[in-house]
């Protein structure tokens, strides 16, 4: 804290505006982009909310090389899950074999694979659960911003 702001408030307190901003950050999920994503630590990040937002690691900065991230969205019985892309920019390659985003009913069953810089069409699940898997190859060339998607069921 610099001298000017120290004079404005007693040490150790946040103003009401700062508190509201922190709450907004928490509920919008944006704070996740500031810390390493659990989804990229080897365990899938579980989502059971009716709607939510998922970001590539380091968003809105470029994603790091050599990452594997996975998210598992579990709906209620009979739910259909719709995934819509808000931002999308992954290193392009033939058949998306270098960097890719995969969506499917399990982490091994791929129904949808995308890369490149065009916003892909929405994905509508045939089941009440979906896996989303993101892979970036070890090369540090060709990095891109990544993705921001929302899901709703
Ligand atoms: Ca890459």
From TrEMBL:
The keyword Disulfide bond applies. It comes from the Eukaryota. Keywords: Disulfide bond, Lipoprotein, Receptor, Repeat. Pfam families: CUB. PROSITE patterns: CUB. Residues 40-153 form the CUB domain. SUPFAM superfamilies: Spermadhesin, CUB domain. This is Low-density lipoprotein receptor-related protein 3. The gene is LRP3.
């Amino acid at each position: 804290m610099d001298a000017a702001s120290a004079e404005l408030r007693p040490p150790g307190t946040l103003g009401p505006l700062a508190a509201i901003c922190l709450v907004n950050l928490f509920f919008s999920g944006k704070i996740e982009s500031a810390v390493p994503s659990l989804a990229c630590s080897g365990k899938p990040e579980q989502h059971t909310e009716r709607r939510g937002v998922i970001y590539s690691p380091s968003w809105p900065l470029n994603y790091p090389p050599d990452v594997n991230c996975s998210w598992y969205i579990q709906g209620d019985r009979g739910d259909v899950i719709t995934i819509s892309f808000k931002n999308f920019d992954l290193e392009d390659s033939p058949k998306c074999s270098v960097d890719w985003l995969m969506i499917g009913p399990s982490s091994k069953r791929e129904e949808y694979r995308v890369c490149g810089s065009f916003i892909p069409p929405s994905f509508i699940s045939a089941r009440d659960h979906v896996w989303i898997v993101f892979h970036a190859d070890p090369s540090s060339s060709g990095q891109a911003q990544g993705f921001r998607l929302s899901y709703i069921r």
